[in-house]
Amino acid sequence: MLESLSISFLITFFISSLLYLIKQPLLIGYLISGFLVSHLFFLNQENLQYFSFFANLGLTFLLFLVGLELNWQNLKVIGKTSILVGLLQEISTIILGLLIAMFLGFDFTSALILSLALSFSSTAVVLKIFSDKREIETLHGRLIIGFMVVQDLLAILIFIFLELFASSFYFNSQKIFKELILGFLFLLLFFLINRVIKKLESFFSTSLEYLFLLGIAYIFGVIYLSEKINLGSEIGALLAGISLSNLSLVKEMISRFRPLRDFFLIVFFIYLGFNFSFKFLDLDFLLKTLIFSVFVIIFNPLITMLIMKIFKFTKKTSFIVGLSSGQISEFSFVLANNANKLNLFSQEFLSLTSFVGIITIFISTYLLYYYEFIYQKIEKFLKFWEEKDEDRKILLEKNEIIIVGCDRIGGILLNKLLEMKKNFLVIDFNPEIVKKLKGKGINVIYGDASEIDLWEEMNFSEIKLVISTVPDFKTNLLLVRYLKNKNSKIKFISVANRNEEKEILIKNGADLVVNPYILGGEYLGEKIKSYL
Fold it and tell me: pTM (2 decimals)?
């Protein structure tokens, strides 16, 4: 077993290194490595059993950490619109995916599971890319986080339902009632244990090693009980994490368990790679792989964009958020693998899901990294996307001051300008903010400041000052260059989160660039002096 594990990790390292160099998710490397190991080296039944055991541990720790990291406060932050768009996108994708799968000859159960698997987008891949691009704090970044939270919650519910659905085939109604009673008692026990642990937090915090031991004992104790009442180890691990997610020590516990999860999760995806088989690679299999890959890469984003159009988001924001749904998730593999173990999903369909995953994650990564270039090329074909605001021309005629973005800093500036009784116009691409400001009688238009068409409608002889509070450096750089070219007398003020960005903006003509973090630090420093 040790020899097989050593060979597997060496191959995984070399394959993943190649993918790392071309900026691809390492997850693809794990799957490809599993495929190569299973076809280039002989793995006996004992080795496969060990790999299966380690893979199950990977799944166990993954779900435990998913439960621990589940932050219910995120739902309050992302807003109702983001939640509604996320839910509508999931429902629409599942229905369309189901229809396509049944048209291709899948039975209803397999078609439903496949459509569910293809509806989830990869949180790890998407957030990694937008984090690298420093766009998490933008509107599209926050909307994407909202979608991911909604999808994670739905994935958890579907995951639990799948286990219960599969087990219900073997129970009569009397036994099902008994299981429901046991499940209720199980959840009640969770609540009581959580209260006890909450009371003893200060005791457990004395040693991180002891805290880690508590987590290990707790997760396997819960799994043992969940197996006894036929809930399954996966649901037990997930519920164990959720039941501890409200502890103040949860971050320390996550940091201790993350390396353990990562190790066993690599084995899980390598083991999934074992499921790739040449015996399925006929023309029909390849055609289905192509159809579902196109569905995920093209039609998933289109569905998202159409839904966002209904909620009146700009075409650029809709385009970026839509692209983020153009690949399948880690949960897709987990769902397909579990359905296969429960005999609800064939080995061929599991291989199909894996192939679609590799193709969509690979292509989507490049689309997301270079979405700006792609958007510039296709923007002219999206002119129909946005509805013209009838009041826009009137609002754009005479404005001395323009505020771009009115969320945090912009909201404070707005109040100051109201106190000074200045004539100003707000431009924002968040429909909720626009609606709120219109309700207060403030001059505001819905639009994306990075789209030049909006500025072309303005009277530049009237504009004296433009204040941009959006954190996106590229948008601010575009604005300062464009405005100074149109009228060099226009004063331009913006924010920048990094000193390098501040210097570039000033070199390009910005009259004032402020770093909110530095200002906040200086203010706090002055306050501290007053206490000393």
Answer: 0.69
